[in-house]
Design brief:
heterodimer; A: 282 residues; alpha/beta; Rossmann fold; 2 domains; 6-stranded mixed beta sheet; 4-stranded antiparallel beta sheet; 10 helices; 31% helix; B: 220 residues; mainly alpha
Chain lengths: 282, 220
Amino acid sequence: MITVKNLSFSYSQLPFIENMNFQVRSGEIFGFLGPSGAGKSTLQKILIGMLPKYKGSVSINNNEVRNKSAHFYKIIGVDFEFPSFYEKFTALENLKFFGSLYDCKLIPAEQLLEMVGLSQHTNKKVAGFSKGMKSRLNFARSIIHQPKVLFLDEPTSGLDPSNSQVMKNIIRELKNKGVTIILTTHNMHDATELCDRVAFIVDGNIKAMDTPRNLIMSRRYNEVTYSYLENQQELNTTIALDKISTDKKLQSLIQANALLSIHSNEPTLDHIFSEITGRKLL
Amino acid sequence: MKLKGLILGDIRQQYKYGFYALYTLFTLVYIAVLRILPMQWKELCTTTLIFSDPVLIGLMFMGAIILFEKSEKVMQALAVSPISIHAYILSKVISIGLISLLSGVLIALFSGMEHSYIHLTVGIMLGSALFTLVGISLSAFISTMNNFMLIMVPTLIISVAPISVYTMGYKSGVMLLHPSISLIELMSGNISVISLMAISIWCIAMYIFSCLSVKKMMTI
């Protein structure tokens, strides 16, 4: 669905994205993860055709992006990080306006507003919306024309946990319908929950690319922490998961049913990112 | 279909930002002023007034309209929709042209003067289109309202100043190459090949600049 070969791009004399290669399969949720200024947004702008002066090849549905026609924007949808609306229009007026720019089958605006939990605010001006409401409306705008490829930039930013979960459920439903989704984020929890594969981007380069699970398991430092009482004091011990069968203390506590708690400490994608790239996600 | 959607969106935006209310008020005030003017001033004043306001509306307000679209990030949403740069520009020209035409024709109609409405209508439409295109061309270089005023005011002076020289009696044929002079002549019912050619060439040139300007705004 998306093929990027030897992609390089620069805003000045200095290279910004260098020799990048990756493929995204149809129906996959693919995450771009990286700190601010890593090149994620630039990469997304290249993929959506807003920066056509790149070197190498970027194709979506076998069409080179730099040679895009108007049809290109019928098959892609873009949910920008910041809301893009006429503030003096109501939610419904905005969706109907953006829908009128397409000559394909649309999802009815009222249905979209219901889907993202804004049906109570249909006739309210967008200027009066909270950040989270604007974010949900932005998402609704990006899918009104039923795109085959959807670009999401921090789609859960500014959302409360409940609405964030609603949004993630819609994203999963879209994936189940065969939509290819590119998720740009620095939220590792979203990436772990949603993405089939992720790419760590730092300084315009892909430092690692795999499924979140494989990335986590590849570091092989899964640990187990258990706690127990000794001399009226609660003690904690942490051991490597692969040493569990040789830990005499743990075995004796199990035999005596004297464990207070036991849990595994898999590294998070955050830890893996820091370990591989030497950078923190900010 | 897409152009129709864009035009309706632009008209709605202009309505909600009060352009229609403002121009209803301006039109009523202009009509009232023109009706009390002595007959010998009326013809010149009507044409000059229609030119200096309804026709120039695109130049004066396009910066504000596009600044709103930039600050509300509507421009980036439009950039990833299947509309063409041409449709975007045409929509602005047609929607602003509608206000120019309604206001200009109503002023002429109720000013108490006889007019050649065909010449007047064609002049208002061409003039409004030309100055809307100038406004769009300038918008690529502005990011704040102060910025726009700094660019718009000199452009306005260059656009309007030669009219006073011309109306005071300096009627050299070369002056018809200035689009404002050609438009005033056309709106007054004096049609010539030179003025029509001058307006057409200016419109084509400004259309090309507008395309470059919108392309710049939509790719950054």
